[in-house]
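Help wanted!
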Amino acid sequence: MADTREVTVTVNGESRTATVETRTSLGDFLRHTLRLTGTHMGCEHGVCGACTVLVDGDAVRSCLMLAVQANGREITTVEGLAAAVGTLSPLQAAFWKHHGLQCGFCTPGMLTSLTAFLRDNPNAGEKDIREAISGNICRCTGYQGIVDAALDAAKSMQEG
Amino acid sequence: MVVRYLGAEVQRMEDPRLLTGHGRYVDDMTMEGMLHAAFLRASHAHAKIRAIDTSRAAQLPGVHRVFTHADLGPKYGHRMNQLYPAPVIEVNKTQYPLSKDEVCYVGEAVAVVVADSRAIAEDAVALIDVDYEVLPAVVNIMNALEDGAPLAHADTSSNLMGRMRSQFGDIDDAFAKADHVFQAAFMQHRGGCHSMETRGCIGRDDPWGDGLTLWTSAQSPYLIRRALATWLGEPEERVRVVAPDVGGGFGPKAGFYPEEIVIPLLARFMERPVKWIEDRREHFMSTTTQRDQHWNLEVACTSEGKILGLRGKVTHENGAYIPYGILLPNSSLTPLPGAYAIPAVDVGVDIVFTNTVPNSPVRGAGRPCGIYAVERMIQTVSRNLGIDPAEVRRRNYVRPEQMPYETGATLRGGAKCVYDSGDYEALLEKALELADYAGFKERQAAARAEGRYLGIGVSSCIEDTGMGPYEGTTVRVEASGKVAVRTGAASQGQGHHTMIAMIVAENLGVSPEDILFESADTGKFPHGVGTIGSRVAANVGPSAFDAATKVREKALRLAAEVLEASEADLDIEDGVVRVNGAPDLSITLGELAIKLSPASAMRVPAGFDPLLEATSYDGSSGSPIACGSNVAEVEVDVGTGEVRVLRYSVAHDCGVMINPMIVHGQIVGGVVHGIGNALFERMIYDDQGQPLTTNYGEYLLPLASEMPRVDVTHMETPSPLNSLGVKGAGEGGTIPAAAAVVAAIENALTEFGVEIDYYPVDPQYLTGLIDRGAAQAAE
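Answered by r_m:
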């Protein structure tokens, strides 16, 4: 029989409890148990970064963390980045403005990674931002729109 | 006043949804009673299957059934169809949806498990026992045609799939009168798809209702509908194929895969929806790639560097089966003679089978290879004659006054390749200016004084875009005043919704926000072809323009009657038809739509049919030829062989730009893909046909930290071949990139006499060339 545990996490500010197999990754748990499908699984071996979510504020690859390890933690997914439904965070708005996405598949991981990075490094320059997303693969954009969006978002967040 | 959208940097309509995690990719979908499938894939590159024992797998709790070829039954026991039959295919090998008795590449689907969850299905796959008789495998294209080479298929006598040739002009005369003949041979390797979303599909069969529906992460739902219906022997009307949001395609998602037969069949057998999502390792082993192509060319030229002829031979790796006709070798040849007026060409291709995953187009298809070949020969002429490579190009370009220029080559479909418009030399000058080519020697000298090696490389390309036959668009004004726009063309991130909404909005006089866009669903729009070969803007664009024009004309004709005004005095703005000079006289498009299809007992206005709707299949009358020149500036670490692209400049001409922001994104993304080809991406098989690069630690993709900022400038030479003057833009960044980067590396290493005959130029390879060059210099 499958080994299961009950897990309680706070996701995007809401407490969620579910029974999961102990082998279930956090990413699969978010996507298939909680039906938060904005988090994408790109490589499932921790390189592409598409599945990145924030766990207690830190950018974490949800394919490399088990759901049970997230018990009691606070998780933010791409669905929870904007302050309110129907709005965009400054970073999301900058991605829109600078054509920082094409197919949109890597986008959730880019947004979560950069949300954490820019919070901790508000004065980041282009080189820093390129390093910060060097663990997030995008096949469409060539990264330029993403970098421009991050630079613009950093600026607008500083200006408040 | 007409609001202009065409040419404006309109922010994409797709984005708010995708930015907030509300996209709908195939793995985001779930259905009542849905089961999950996982495939067992061949672990040998070439083997006979003696027996398959599925009993242990079938007993695992949560497993519903396990299927092999035999379990699909005789009705479904035949090989896959050839999508693009061609006379040059001498041995027409397509695969069985599940291997019958022979596997021909590692990754070939052998059996499939259906279970309650993907995890259980994957557990059960490990419990299937296959008894293989291992056969010798052929992996290297350079000896695949030698006598005694292992055969990729046990029942064939040769690994030759077919031969083709591009031949025009008087090649013997060109070489007879040439001052010089130079030769170069080189291998090209283009890696795989690596869309961030892997493949995946859901099948559902409702024999009493909708028939068979397949949701699949694909570029060509209509091709899949036809292929699946044909394979099943069932009418196309009973097969619906939908491409939901697709996380990148880049070519390999344009074909038709075994899983797209097997999953619908499983749904039929199980009488429940079945989902399969490819994992990344499967993507490496089972999604088509574009690997080796070897070129051996001779160029005939004058002492001034004017090229008279090009001849030689190409060996093209097909992989184990033919998924896609001869599109790839064909599109490798048709770009010859590149951007140049070369009067004579004679190049043949041997297409060979190997025991590796089948090959199909990856961004650009064969065009990056054909252009790379031409550009290498330009470099060869430049090096041998001591003429600046930019100057050699100037002396050979097709000139604006020669347009339309018939190259002599034949496009797929048999049409002559005709360059429709463009100023290739002007484009080069723009690229050189952007790159500060004139100032490079100074930068190079300054770096050299610090012990650093800089190089610069130029590359020019043409690109046949917008291939036919058509894509269509329906535009219909709803009673609400919203405008329903439907097309077949699937998007994998190119922003079709935005692009088409801009065209319709401008022409019809509505806001892009009022457009309800649907695409890539064979149940919603009757006909389509696919998103390949940079063809959507040049096919869907004109059809959307034409359909919107027809709706506008109909609306104005009816409004003139209703408002008792002359059509010439009417204008449509923000969905309202107004009479110029009489601001109180107006009617909305929604009200006009209701007048045309009124409630019961009312009448349709005389002389009109009931819908405010039009459909068009207007496209391009030929292939619009886009063009570009790129300049790469690199630094090479001669100790480690590391290459860094410091600066990259693009001058590109894709005709009239509908949305320059989207074009810019296509070009920059394309360039980075091309830099990946030049420096990083290598799908490696060992000599037994085992893939050695099956994760992103082993197979390197371009990362943000390694990529330069790409500077792009545009010319807009309208294409005379369609109503909008547009040309395709999806691949023009990729096509010339590898040639520019490789030329730059050679330029940096001039003092070592390095001549590159292989890409991706990885550090091991490059340090080998540098060491050899240094040793020769020391002698």
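OP: Thanks! One thing I noticed: The radius of gyration of chain B is 28 Å.
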